[in-house]
Amino acid sequence: MSENNKAILEAANAAIALGNYEGFLSFCTDDTEWTFIGDKSLKGKVAVRQWIATTYIEPPKFMVANLIAEGDFVTALGDLTIKDEDGNATHYSYCDVWRFRGGKMVELKAFVIKTEVKNETSSAA
User: Fold this and answer.
1) What are the average pLDDT values for consecutive 10-residue runs of the chain, which has 125 residues?
2) pTM flag (> 0.90)
3) Contact at 8 Å (CB) between 55 and 83?
4) Cα–Cα distance between 65 and 120 in angstroms, integer?
5) Which residues lie closer than 8 Å to 32 by C-beta, 6 or more apart?
6) Domains assigned to the chain
7) What are the SnoaL-like domain coordinates in residue numbering (predicted)?
8) In this structure, are strands 61-70 and 73-83 parallel, antiparallel, or unpaired?
């Protein structure tokens, strides 16, 4: 079960990376609940669809470092870059804890922290 849930999350992430937001939402239950810890909660697929429409002006770029699956849960750790309507990129590190029911994503608890991207420069000694 947990490996299947991992594959479902990977397919959902692939859809969102391509800008196929409806394809992503097809992996969510109608009563899905998303909680962004310390920020906001979304209840239902309609609320998630509205959030995606206003947040993902263009498909986000993300790198999943680890996917950890056990039972009905999959935890994803990684980094995310989202561009706003002016094309300015904001970088985040995240830990998403997904709960699955019947092969679909029913609940998300997202821990998201804005991060700085550092340019590496060499200094002369």
Assistant:
1) 91 96 98 97 98 93 94 97 90 97 97 79 48
2) no
3) no
4) 21
5) 42, 44, 45, 48, 104, 105, 106, 107, 108
6) 2-115 (3.10.450.50)
7) 10-107
8) antiparallel
User: Which residue type occupies 30?
Assistant: D
Instruction: Kindly list the distances between the CA atom of residue 112 and the CA atoms of 33, 70, 72, 95, 103, in Å, as whole numbers in the listed order.
Output: 16, 22, 22, 7, 25
| Locus of tokens 């991060």 | 115
Sequence-separated (6 or more) residues with CB below 8 Å from residue 112: 36, 37, 39, 80, 92, 93, 94
- Positive or negative: CA dihedral 52, 92, 33, 101: positive
Structure token pair of residue 65:
């470092």
